[in-house]
UniProtKB/TrEMBL annotation:
InterPro entries named among the record's database cross-references: Na/H_Antiport_NhaC-like_C
Domain (Na+/H+ antiporter NhaC-like C-terminal): residue spans on this chain: 137-467
Membrane topology recorded in Swiss-Prot or TrEMBL: Multi-pass membrane protein
A cellular-component GO term for this protein: plasma membrane
Keyword annotations from UniProtKB, A to Z: Cell membrane, Membrane, Transmembrane, Transmembrane helix
Protein name according to UniProt: Na+/H+ antiporter NhaC family protein
Naturally occurring in which organism (per UniProt): Salinadaptatus halalkaliphilus
Membrane keyword on record: yes
Subcellular compartments: Cell membrane
Ranges that cross the membrane: 45-67, 88-107, 182-204, 244-265, 285-309, 321-342, 362-385, 397-420, 450-469, 476-495, 543-564
Principal localisation: membrane
Length: 566
């Protein structure tokens, strides 16, 4: 919290752990810290994971640099006529880029920023859609570097609990799959983006930002300071023969090769091995490595083959794509290291002993873990670092207090709580990147996103309280939470719009320009002027229908992945 520097703080945690082991000798502690970092990097799983995220960075760079994004804009841009359309489109593209949150923020932000400016979407709303779509969808996968990282954390948790997959009858990947329906916060955050965009019901500071953008044509407030654009890592997209092939082909290749590789490496091709067993026994990191390599190669062939760039430019794009992942790689290595440090000093066993002796009912443990993850992620600004700190504590604690059955619940709420902290922390890397690629003032983005994140977190707390009193089915709690979230959003929108004397359903900029809305009357506090100012939208136009279709297909894919996985 003091330094606001994630890398410095993570290393400090590693070093303090080493200092304890080294009998408070600072020189020996420094040497031991270096040894721990080398040790975690040399792990076959971790080494494979570092390589695969580099390949994903390169593949994403080809999607952007080859003009695939321009082709997408040319294809669908004429259908985007309102701010609502641009917000829904941003949501849709964010769903397609489900393999890495950094990549999704960069690609989606650049793909939709110009359209959202033209349709008078506030920079704050554009940043919110980016931030609250990218992390949730990459958490679920079905093929992403987040999955590889989360599985690696579960492996660390197994080691902290001192049991093996064979002893408890489930692999780390199998436990991850079972945790997905319990990641309630991420499902709600993802749902809220679409629900708010489609209904145009805003509240909190976002209501003011959207009214300003539509009525005053100011997509940023007058004294806002937008963060600079860092697209120089990759360069401007090529305008030579932009084609949709260079957008869709690499993504489809990643999905197909990744899933087939996971199935094959788990022995799915062998007689008598069903799909569930294959996914349970697979090598996650290696399967994702094959998928990410194919992702990069197809992107490179498409870029060169369609004349978007020559071979030299393609080689430079590979390196530049690697550069976009360097910060992520540094955080990952230190997150692994702090997890190893916590294991070495016995943090998990200490926490287990305290909690077991305190008499806290095991049914309340998911709520405790969720709140702890929220706090740590908010103060550190890193969801991955939070997972590294808490997973080695949560797994042995849950196993000792309740047993194997609670572990999927704990992992789901832990991952969700970590991402909540990411969404509301001003020092979060993904939050900063969302501000950058939306062209938003960073603090404005954080302030407008907090009420939405708090809504999803509040409903999650309610669901976990219901779990504590005996409703222990995710198939009951998750749909109930979604319905409750929709009701809360509408209620808060009505309350805040009435309090501020603004329309409940934000009208289009065109309706305001055409004089259909009495802007002067509304701003002078005339309540009657608000009565007829609500926007009217057709829910059966192409953009909303495509969005619903894409979301249903994506969620169907995720839950099929979960079902066949265990």
């Amino acid at each position: 919290m003091y330094t606001r520097q994630v890398l410095v703080s993570l290393f400090a945690g590693v070093w303090v752990g080493a200092l304890m082991i080294a009998s408070w000798d600072p020189i020996a502690a420094t040497a031991l810290s270096m040894g721990w970092i080398v040790e975690v990097v040399r792990s076959p799983f971790n080494t494979t994971f570092l390589i695969l995220i580099m390949f994903m960075g390169a593949g994403a760079a080809f999607i952007y640099k080859s003009g695939g994004i321009l082709a997408l804009q040319n294809w669908i841009g004429h259908r985007v006529n309102t701010a609502r359309d641009s917000q829904i489109l941003t949501w849709i593209i964010g769903i397609f880029i489900f393999f890495d949150s950094y990549t999704s923020t960069i690609v989606t932000g650049n793909a939709t920023r110009e359209l959202s400016e033209e349709t008078n979407t506030s920079r704050e709303m554009h940043a919110y859609v980016l931030d609250s779509t990218t992390s949730p969808v990459t958490t679920f996968g079905p093929v992403s570097n987040w999955i590889g990282y989360q599985v690696s954390m579960i492996i660390v948790g197994f080691e902290a609990a001192r049991f093996t997959a064979s002893e408890v009858g489930i692999t780390a990947f199998g436990l991850f799959l079972q945790s997905i329906p319990w990641n309630i916060y991420c499902f709600l955050a993802f749902f809220m983006v679409g629900f708010i965009s489609i209904t145009q019901r805003f509240y909190g500071p976002m209501l003011d930002a959207e009214w300003r953008s539509r009525a005053e044509k100011k997509t940023r407030r007058d004294d806002a300071t937008p963060l600079s654009d860092i697209t120089t890592d990759v360069g401007e997209p090529s305008e030579k023969n932009p084609t949709l092939f260079n957008f869709f082909a690499p993504i489809l290749t990643l999905l197909i090769v990744g899933v087939v590789s996971l199935w094959w490496l788990g022995g799915g091709h062998q007689p008598g091995v069903d799909v569930a067993t294959a996914f349970q026994e697979t090598d996650v990191a290696l399967g994702l490595l094959y998928g990410s390599f194919a992702f990069m190669v197809v992107g490179m062939f498409g870029a060169v083959g369609f004349g978007a760039m020559d071979l030299e430019e393609a080689s430079d794009t590979v390196i530049n794509g690697f550069k976009t992942m360097m910060i992520a790689a540094a955080i990952i290595v230190l997150a692994w290291s702090i997890g190893h440090a916590a294991e070495q000093v016995g943090t998990a066993q200490y926490i287990v002993d305290v909690m077991v002796g305190s008499g806290i009912p095991g049914s309340f443990l998911p709520l405790i873990i969720f709140v702890a993850a929220m706090f740590i992620a908010f103060t550190t600004g890193t969801s991955w670092g939070t997972m590294a700190i808490l997973t080695p504590l949560a797994i042995p604690l849950g196993y000792e207090l309740v047993g194997l059955s609670i572990l999927p619940v704990l992992m789901g709420v832990l991952f969700g709580g970590a991402i909540w902290g990411d969404h509301v922390s001003p020092i979060s890397d993904t939050t900063v990147m969302s501000s950058i690629f939306a062209g938003s003032d960073h603090i404005d983005h954080v302030n407008t996103q907090i009420p939405f994140a708090m809504t999803a977190a509040g409903v999650t707390v309610v669901a976990l309280l219901l779990y504590a009193v005996g409703i222990t089915s995710a198939m009951v709690l998750l749909p109930l939470s979604i319905v409750l979230t929709a009701g809360v959003v509408v209620a808060l929108n009505k309350f805040d719009a009435r309090r501020k004397n603004l329309p409940e359903v934000m009208p289009t900029a065109e309706a305001i320009d055409n004089g259909e809305v009495d802007v002067a009357g509304i701003e002078n506090g005339n309540r009657s002027a608000v009565t007829g100012a609500n926007g009217t939208y057709d829910f059966f136009t192409s953009i909303p229908l495509i969005a619903v279709g894409v979301v249903l297909a994506y969620l169907g894919l995720v839950f099929a992945f979960v079902t066949f996985g265990f």
